[in-house]
Every structure is written in structure tokens, then in C-alpha cells.
Amino acid sequence: MPSTLFDKLAVLTRYFGYGSFRPMQEEIIDHILAGQDTFVIMPTGGGKSLCYQLPALLLEGITIVVSPLIALMKDQVDSLGASGVAATFLNSSLPAGESSKRLGDIFRGKYKLLYLAPERLLMEGFLEIVQKLPIALIAIDEAHCISEWGHDFRPEYRKLREVRALFPQIPVVALTATATEQVQEDIVRQLNLQQGRVFKASFDRENLYYEVRAKQDTYEQIRKYLKTRKGESGIIYCGSRKGVESLTEKLQRDGFGAVAYHAGLPAKDRTTRQDEFIRDNAQIIVATIAFGMGIDKPNVRFVLHYDLPKNLEGYYQETGRAGRDGLTSECILFYSYGDKMKIDYFIDDKTPQNQMLARKQLAQVIGYAESTLCRHRLLAEYFGETYHGTNCGRCDNCVKPVEHVDATVLAQKFLSCVRRTGERFGAGYVIDVLAGSENAKILSNRHSNLPVYGIGRDHSKKEWLQLSRQLLSMGYVIQGDYNVLKLTQKSLGVLLGEEKVFVKPLREEKTKFVATAAGPVDEDIFTRLRRLRKKLADEQDLPPYIIFSDASLRDMASRRPATLEEFAAISGVGERKLAMYGSVFLEEINSGR
């Protein structure tokens, strides 16, 4: 039965320290409390977890939470425990004796939430035990893992439909931060959520700044950037293990607190390095995409991509690890068309069906990197969302729009060459014809006799290549199998002189986005509070953000509460945290008065 508004707000304030719900949260919670299946698509940092954690405290019985990673379970349970919520997990990290003890406590009603990996839940004999529990709700976190079309597909998640069949009367809530329309449909079908309601928040992360930089002197660009971000946490993604190790070594040599993370490291080393980063003992983690799922570190201030991501869904997920606390954070992609060639090499090893999908995804990433449109708009539209803004003020293309140049004549030359060579070749071959190359293939095809042969000598191959990619992203040509270029209906207007083509210049400068705080923050107090938080976290063997987020600390440094009553009004301060930390933080805040 749904709770009253007072019940919900009382629980929200008492345990989670918030005075109001974020957009959509209350509506979702009411739907779950009414016993209905629910599908929540909400970007990282939007407050998905609260949508099932708060109902778990109001419902009779226990809530089962299916979670993909051990680290994520521990993090969630630690965070809930720090807020006074009775939660636990069962997984392979626990000795047999501890697992038995926790299971006994679960049956005695000690816990309101139980976190399980899908493998544990589906383990032979364990489902029989679970069926004896008074289950009130089943929550499936990172639900995109259930779809073969998703970027993090896990076969074990696919079997969760068996669990759904065993508990037909128990409401199910599936949650994900990222899912294309195809993935969403697959999740609904696999979990039989047809009668449930889909809650879809905007994919636009308003606190994130997106930028694409040319991949030139990349390490020097990163080194200079990090010097301006001292004391702030960040992730740098690389496309290979070798790249991770090499970049980490350079950063360490230059005095940065960086650690490497990739799937080739022993599990113990991965856990140690992840903990160093989460506990603010390492400022930067340099990683492959093996790092990140389930990492709930809210104060990541920047995410850099040293190499081109393989698809936009993964890129959105990876950049979404920045700014989970709602504070301004930066996402910078270093782009070189040469990265496409590297990814193409690995795509060639896939099955023909998978090659087609991978090349389509890669083309979408390149289109994003080379586009002059608002990057927030591009990402929102990728997920099927209509973006209504005209200038977000939060990406390089909107902060400093690039002045386009008239490239109609160049476009006519290029498109004419595509047509005259029979629409049977890729961009490289077309450019060689325009450049007047005397390579054997051009001579044997007699393309040196074409009127377009050599008419592009006055521009470099690099300029022609950039033009070809912009024409591709604007829809004047399409790329078929083996990267063969084909003309589109749109290109005919250009060839007939009826339409002009304006493109982005080859080189442009980007300006650094400078964020300003929402209110006046005493940076000295903020620094001292971070130091105090780290000391308390180390003493309790917890990640610092479990005690308070950066957003809470900045709120303290802005409002400078003088009494426990004023401290209780700080965002993120619930009853438990007020009792545990209120006095010591007040002492630090007021020590300079």
C-alpha cells in the first residue's frame, strides 16, 4: 500500500538527509509502493538507487537487489549503513561462516535490503532458500546488462527472466542509466515488464561540460590540464592495456598520483588500485573500459578519453562517471581519425553481422567527434530524446561556435570524383585521384584519364580527408561495405550548383570552460573539510564520499552552519550522520571564526 507523503518525506530526511525529491523520484516511488512493475531509465547521478531504497524501508519484508559487481554491492551497503539503513550482501568475497551468519540474520528480519549478484541468485539450491523469504520487491540494477544489444551484456543477466517467472506476484523494478530504444525494448521483453510503466528521465547531464580536442601532443595537453586540477579526482580512459601502462608511467614520472587499471592485472591488484582511487589516495585512475561499472564515486571532476571510444552508448556511460554529486565536471575526448583505423582492425575479426553493427557504432562516434552541433543535443538524440535547447553553454561547440567556411567548390570536386569513379571506392582512393597520384591501381583503372584527376592538388590529403568526413557526417555521402562511398539524394543539389556546403575549418582552437560555483564557497573551509573527511574515512576504513559528498562539503563551506540545527539543514545530512559527524564538522567550520 502506498505511503503518505509525510511517510516518504520523513524517511527521505531521516535516512538520506534530503528535504525534497529530485524530478520523477516521488512518482516512481509511488508506483513501486503501489505494487506495480517499473522500468526506470535515469542518467547517472539522477538518483536511481533512492527509487528502490526508500520503498524498501516502507514495504513489509525484504527487497532483493540484483547487482553486477562485488565492489558495487559493498559500496552501496557501506553507504546505506552510514545512513542507518539495514542492508547487507552475499557474494563470493565472504567466507562461508560469514555468509551463513548473514543468511540467518536475513531470516530473522534484521535487514531491509539484500544485494546479490545474478550468479548467486541463480545458484543451484539458493533460489529455493530465497523463495522462503518475505520478499517485498525485486530491484534489478544496471538492467542494460540483460540485453545482447547493450554495451555491457552479461549472459547471467539474461537468466533473470527465470527468477521473474518464480515470483509472478512480486513487483520488479529495473533500472539503468543508459539504453537505446532497442535495448529498452529488449529489457521490457526479457523481464516481462509489458504491464509495467516506463519512467524515462532526460539523458542530458546538465552539470557536464563536453569537449573534443585534436589528438596532437596529447600527453602534453593532458599534463597541462592536470596541473590545473590539483587535488581533484579524475579518470583517463585508454583503448589498450599497453596504452594504460605507458600513460600511467609518464604521469607518475611527472609527479601525478596516478594508478593503472585493466583486465590484465591480477584481481587483487585491481581491487587495491580501485580502492586507492575511491578513497582519494590516488588522484587519477588510468584505465581501459574494464574500469567503471558500479563505481559510485561522486566527486570525479573530470573524465578524459585518450583514445576514441567504440560506441556512443559506452562513451555516455563512461563520461557519466563524472559529476555524480551534481557539481560541474568536465569530459574531454582526444580525437584523431587515425584511431578509427585501429578500431577498424579489430572489427575485421568479428563475424559479418557483428562487423555491420560495430561499423555503424563507430561511424556514430566519429560523427559526434567531428560535428559542429551541440554535443548535449547529439547525445540526447542518440538515445531517442528530442533536445529543445539552442545553445547549452556546456560544450565546446556552444561555448565557442566554430565559424564555418564555404566549401561548395571543394565538395563539388569530391562528390564528382566519387561519381566518376563509379561509387566503388573509399575516401582514400577518391582523394588519391583528386591529388593526381600515380599509384598502380589508379593507372590500371584508367582513372588518371578522368577530368577530376589531379584537380585537388592545391589542397593537402589531410584537408581532403577532413572534408570527406564532414560530408559523410552531413549526409552528402554514405559509407557502405568496405568503406565504399555512395552519393545520396542530398549530394545532387550540390553537384547541380543548387546548394552550398559550409564546413568546419581544418584547425580550430578550443577555449577552456570555466565553471562558477552556484553560491559563494569559502575554499579554505572546503579544503579543511575535505582533509577532515579523509581523516575520518581512513579511521573508519571507508571511502570519503560515504561520510559526505563534495556537494555537501561545499554547502557547508558556503552556508557555514554554527549550530547542530543549522548543520541538519545541509544537503545530505540525515539523522545518523548528524549524530556521528555534526559536532566535529561544526568545530572545523567554526575554528576560523
Structure description:
This protein is of the alpha/beta class and 593 residues long. It folds into 4 domains: 5-200, Rossmann fold (3-Layer(aba) Sandwich), CATH 3.40.50; 208-399, P-loop containing nucleotide triphosphate hydrolases (Rossmann fold), CATH 3.40.50.300; 405-503, Winged helix-like DNA-binding domain superfamily/Winged helix DNA-binding domain (Arc Repressor Mutant, subunit A), CATH 1.10.10; 523-590, DNA polymerase, domain 1. The protein has 28 helices and 17 strands. The chain has a 7-stranded parallel sheet with strand order 3-4-2-5-6-1-7, with helices on both faces. It has a 6-stranded parallel sheet with strand order 8-13-12-9-11-10, sandwiched between helices. A two-stranded antiparallel ribbon has the order 14-17. The longest helix has 19 residues, at 352-370. The two termini are 50 Å apart.
Short description:
With 593 residues, the protein is α/β, with parallel strands linked by helices.
Write the SSE topology.
Layout: H1 5-16, H2 25-33, E1 38-41, H3 48-58, E2 62-66, H4 70-82, E3 87-90, H5 96-107, E4 113-116, H6 118-121, H7 126-130, E5 135-140, H8 155-158, H9 160-166, E6 172-176, H10 181-190, E7 197-200, E8 208-214, H11 218-227, E9 233-237, H12 241-253, E10 258-261, H13 267-278, E11 284-287, E12 300-305, H14 312-319, E13 329-335, H15 337-347, H16 352-370, H17 375-382, H18 396-399, E14 405-406, H19 408-420, H20 427-435, H21 440-444, H22 461-473, E15 477-479, E16 485-487, H23 489-495, E17 502-503, H24 523-540, H25 544-547, H26 550-559, H27 564-568, H28 575-590
Parallel strand pairs: 1-6, 1-7, 2-4, 2-5, 3-4, 5-6, 8-13, 9-11, 9-12, 10-11, 12-13
Antiparallel strand pairs: 14-17, 15-16
Helix pairs in contact: 1-3, 2-3, 15-16, 16-22, 19-20, 20-22, 24-26
